[in-house]
Amino acid sequence: MKRAIILALPIILAACGQEPEGEPVLRTEIGSGVAEETAAAAPERAGACKDVTFENVSLTHCVADPKTHRITTDLGPDDGAPYRSLANLAAGRSANAPLVVFAMNGGMYDDDGKPIGYYVENGKRTKELNRADGPGNFHLKPNGVFYGTGGKWNIRTSSDFYSNVGDRPQFGTQSGPMLVIDGKLHPEIAEDGPSKARRNGVGIDKDGRAHFVISNAPLSFGVLARFFRDELKTPDALFLDGNVSALWDPASERLDNGPAIGPLLVVEERE
After folding, report:
1. Residue 34 phi/psi, 5° resolution?
2. How many domains does the chain have?
3. Using CA atoms, how far apart are residues 73 and 105, in angstroms rounded to an integer?
């Protein structure tokens, strides 16, 4: 699946999937203007993911805590083709593998489902940092890298990563654009641009926790970025993709299915 090309001014930010704006998986929308747990819509469930609303848009917010979780990237089975779906990931997990807390699509990819930017899985780099200019959301600079080793997780702009990160992490994925940079919104993101899609991203808070967010209805880049900055207080946040965005949350038995995806981010219980 090819990445979409931005057909207008950069601030419009076209969606990242080649597919047209499709029908998202709609979730219950409750509240107005501020984020709140939608406890009235469903019974409280154990797990790392909760439904919230922000500016009248339904979101699912999942938290990975380095004290109890580990994060890995996963493209596909060893020596095999990419999974291309969370259902295939779930089916391919061995019985003795660590318990999956949740998983989400984790970056942009080419027609074969392989990453177009920096990608490290289990300490092995299979794609170098992509610093090229080009069309589409990935190339809307600054883009960034989400990476980590052990319980230390980070998000940096790609130029910052290139200049300051020398050691190869255990996992890493490059995507773009950045949503929040040092506490400020990406300079090319409009307050509430006309491009609306089902989107997801990740941010790191001051305590080192990773916040994964996926919208359950179409929203603009501006709304998603403000949720990270204003509600989650993440100094840095990275857009992961749009239209194809998907979540596997075993605790709620949610397993999104839709267009083929590429790299995956998997949050597991620490052994």
Report:
1. -130, 155
2. 1
3. 10
- Give the pair of three-digit tokens for residue 225: 């970025």
125-136 pLDDT tens trace: 999 999 999 999
Burial status of residue 111 (CB atoms within 10 A of its CB: 0-12, 13-18, 19 or more): exposed
pTM for this structure? 0.84
Contact 211, 186 (CB under 8 A): no
Residue 112 covered by a domain: yes
Q: Which domain holds residue 202?
A: 47-269
pLDDT in tens, 151-163: 999 999 999 999 9
The residue written with tokens 């704006």 in the block is 21
In a domain, 191, yes or no: yes
Helix, strand, coil percentages for the chain (3-state, nearest 5):
15, 35, 55
Pair 174, 118: CB distance under 8 Å:
yes
What's the full length of the chain, in residues? 271
Please report whether residue 1 resides in a domain.
no
Residue 78 domain-assigned? yes
